[in-house]
Amino acid sequence: MQFRDFGEKRAIRQPGIDPDELTETADPLDGELDVAAASIAQTGAAGTTADGTISGSVLRAVDLSESRWGPLELTDVSVRGADVSNAEWAPVTARRVEFVSCRATGWRLSLALAGDLYVADTRLDYAVVRFDRTKGFVVFEGCSFGRAQLGGDLRNVLFVDCELDGVEFVATAAAGCDLTGSRIAGARGLHSLRGARITSDQAAVAGTQLAHEAGLQVTAGE
Questions:
Q1: CA-based angle 126:129:100, to the nearest 5?
Q2: How far is CA 168 from CA 164, 181, 187, in A?
Q3: CA 134 to CA 50: how far, in whole Å?
């Protein structure tokens, strides 16, 4: 099992996929899914409705825009270069799953359980992502969240080099959430992130934003 290490004893397991066991398939991603040890590339599944399981598999450049998936269980899955724009997936259980370089504008994702989930270099503008429960760590790296909403259990969710301008946080728990490596100017709902980590520089930004949310008028000092 390979790990991604983010320091301070924070690491997530990478998907356990054996390339030698993968079978290339062009099976449609629709209906009742029972996908295992598959390599699926450039499949058009826009607007599909599906439920079931995907395990030990790789999806590359798959068009899943406007899909309606769930209940869905993902275990040891790598999704790269996919389009999930305006898709709605709920509920989803994700264990050792990665989404890399995807288009996710307007994605509505409800995670019943997320453990060792990694999302990188992905635009989540206008997305709505909710975590019912997290286990271990969840990492967003190099992502943008313009006008997005992130809610639920954000404990041990790490934001690494992310652009959080315009995001709205609606957290029910946030102990261990780490925003220190990202830009939080313009983020809303920071008051819901009790227990989250920020830097002293970010604290100044957060203070101004919290004052605005409380209805205070902030003026320049003399």
A1: 85
A2: 9, 18, 6
A3: 24
131 CB neighbour count, 10 Å cutoff = 24
Q: Under 8 Å CB-to-CB from 215, ≥6 apart: which residues? A: none
CA dist., res. 49 & res. 13, Å (int) = 29
Q: Rounded CA gap, 186 and 107, in Å?
A: 21
Q: What is the mean pLDDT of residues 97-119?
A: 98
Task: Give 104's contacts (C-beta < 8 A, 6+ positions apart).
Answer: 84, 85, 122, 123, 124, 127
Q: How far apart are CA 114 and CA 75, in angstroms?
A: 10
End-to-end CA distance of the chain: 58
Q: Residue 67 and residue 181: Cα distance in Å, rounded? A: 32
pLDDT digits (tens, 9 = 90+) for 30-43: 999 999 999 999 88
Find where tokens 């509505």 sit: 108
Q: Is the pLDDT of residue 27 over 90?
A: no
- Residue 92 is given by DSSP the state E
Q: What is the DSSP letter of 30?
A: -
Convert the pLDDT of each residue in 80-99 to its tens digit.
999 999 999 999 999 999 99
Cβ-proximal residues to 200 (8 Å cutoff; 6+ apart), any chain: none
- The DSSP H or E segment spanning 69 is strand 68-80
Segment (H or E) for 160? strand 157-163
